[in-house]
Fold:
Amino acid sequence: MNPEEYTRLAQVERDHWFYRGKRDVVRDWIDRCLPLRRDDLLIDGGTGTGTWLVEMSSRCRVLGLDDFPESIALARPRLEAVGGSVLQTSLERVDLLL
Structure:
């Protein structure tokens, strides 16, 4: 993604109908197929600005994965504020020691 797009995305994704709708659909699938418990870990590969995980942090533990510094800079403070974390990594190989 173009680095400038992260800043633009952070400005619109919380309220724009398209992004809100995508998150609502995924949340509905999770609720139907495998409801999350507080001690479950939800990992978002390609976390972008972290909005999805911030919203989900009230339901479970959250971890964002991304390899773009622009994403990490936006997502890390948001996720750490809700008890989550971010790992800067390529999604081709992720070493998780949890």
The two ends are 29 Å apart (CA to CA).
